[in-house]
Amino acid sequence: MRCPTCGFENLLGSDVCDNCGSDLAGHDTPQAAITFRGQLLGEHLDRLGITPPETIDAGADVDEAIRRMHDKGIDCVLVTDQGRFVGIFTDRDAVLKVAGAPADGSRPIGTLMTPDPVVLRHDETIAVAINKMAVGGFRHIPIVEDGRPMGVITARDVFHHLVDSLG
Prior knowledge:
Largest sheet: 4 strands, mixed
Order of helices and strands: EHEEHHEHEEH
Number of strands: 6
Radius of gyration: 24 Å
Structural class: alpha+beta
Helix content: 25-40%
Oligomer: single chain
Strand content: 15-25%
């Protein structure tokens, strides 16, 4: 066990540091991490540089959504109804729900989107975003405030921020 005073590596279970004599009793007992906020994981999502999302009306055709995603090089669009957030349409939805299906007439994005997805608020932490992504298996989570879409956090955004911050 490492002495918290001098950094000397002592044998596990030592009560006194062999180097400096500091009391080590209880320092090898695991402690609850109730005060840990973490330099990176405790940061708010605002630190990721959230940009306004690409939105599309629920009545728009799926071809328009896919065209926008392709033209802008993005993986998802947020679906709105009268400005209110109602769902998300991702590249995965395009592959699973649209690709190979007959294009018989109009295909409103509102019928193909993922309705009522998990969302975040801009003031939540990176740790909360990582947890929601991991538990739900999501790569995109919308940021919503008062029912209005404000942005999208992607696994790529989080990963790049952590890599940049760590050096």
